[in-house]
Amino acid sequence: MPKIITFGTLKGGTGKTATASATVGILAQLGNKVLAIDADPQANLTSNLGIDETVEGYMGIQDIFEDSDVDINKVIIKTPIAELPTLDAIGSSILMSATELKIINYAGRELLIKNYLNKNKDMFAEYDYIIIDTNPSMSVINQNCFILSDAIILVSDVGMNSIKGIELIDALWGNICERLSIPNNIKGILLNKIDQRNSLSNDFIEYCEEDPEIKKLLFKNYIPINVKISETELLKKPINLTFNSSVGSKAYSKFVEELIERI
Q1: What is the pTM of this model?
Q2: CA–CA dist 81, 155 (Å, integer)
Q3: What is the pLDDT of residues 171-230, one digit of tens each?
């Protein structure tokens, strides 16, 4: 079965989706068979991969949540980016906002995606990695993704609000894991939007490294502020295809190398 990695946060604006996009792009470029899943109602990862969720007949992750018998072949979008032939995707849409309300009373609501994967394990077994993007919340949809994952990676930008978000999601998820009798699978914290010319960034890194609970999860590599990362959103392709020689792309490549070693 593939390694399943979910990116999470409780604070918006940390660069989580840009990180998910870069990760799937780099993993696919390395020759891995990758499935990108967008579980965020804003569908930013979907858009970043050049997928139009407004086309007639579009199906996405919400269909899996709402119908456990939906045909997986109708949901998976094959090769949304021609330059990455080993990358497939399951997109999202604004309709996901209503999905959360629909499934809240479902029996076993936290296990809907895991059960669907097990039901279609032969198809999912074709992939080396499944990378999931979530929105900043502890919604039932996100809990499904977290339970499914081999590793949850938290993405943080600079600031104490981000630290509070990390501490909160760690505490909330720890309580849920205890209730469900499953191991806590938060495996890493990635620092993003770092500007070493700025004393605040340096102080923030130092603070994180001095906190033993945070330090043990920190990735050695961090992502610097780089305008090319934002520009990739307009081009609807991962940064390794659009600005491969940029500081941002090189930083994400180092992060992915470390991620592979850790996971």
Answers
A1: 0.96
A2: 25
A3: 999 999 999 899 999 999 999 999 988 888 888 899 899 999 899 999 999 999 999 998
